[in-house]
Amino acid sequence: MRDIALFMLLVPRNLGVLLLRGYRALISPLYGDVCRYYPSCSAYGLGAVQQRGLVIGSVLGAWRILRCNPWSRGGVDDVRPASHDRYRVTPFGWVLPAAWVTGGEASSDAAAHDHHSHAAGTRPVASVLSPASSRKA
């Protein structure tokens, strides 16, 4: 019963996820790579809504968009993962109660952003390849 109530609380968050996924698929490619931050503002907004909910995530996304301007230095600015483990994010981006999702189907909130970790000592996969192996044939 508790999971059903939790799911109902997640419906607005998942509607926000759906809108942001639609924006990222249809409108964002028209702009190209213009964001001064990594991840892009739309990816940041999506992560913020997934991690913090629709209201706080929208405020964080709007603040990020205001900071993304020609006079900003930009750089790496990830969404801080939630400190709790109540939710899981599916590969599509839906947020579900943790009890509803098995470990292989989704990632935890903290692990959802580990795929582009910027901690010292980690490198993207492309930089691990030797220069010769990364050239196009």
Describe it.
This protein is mainly α and 137 residues long. The chain has six helices and five strands; from the N terminus they run ααβααββββαα. A three-stranded antiparallel beta sheet has the order 4-3-5. α3 runs antiparallel to α4. It is elongated and about 50 Å long.
Keywords:
137 residues; three-stranded antiparallel sheet; 5 strands; Membr_insert_effic_factor_YidD; membrane; Putative membrane protein insertion efficiency factor; cell membrane
Radius of gyration: 17 Å
Strand order of the largest sheet: 4-3-5
Estimated share of beta-strand residues: 5-15%
Number of helices: 6
Class based on secondary structure composition and strand pairing: mainly alpha
Kindly state the number of beta strands: 5
Reported for the largest beta sheet, the result is: 3 strands, antiparallel
Measured distance between first and last alpha carbons? 57 Å
Order of helices and strands: HHEHHEEEEHH
Percent of residues in helices comes to 40-55%
Which stretches are low in confidence, meaning pLDDT under 50 for 5 or more residues running? 108-137
| Average pLDDT metric | 76
What would you call the shape? elongated
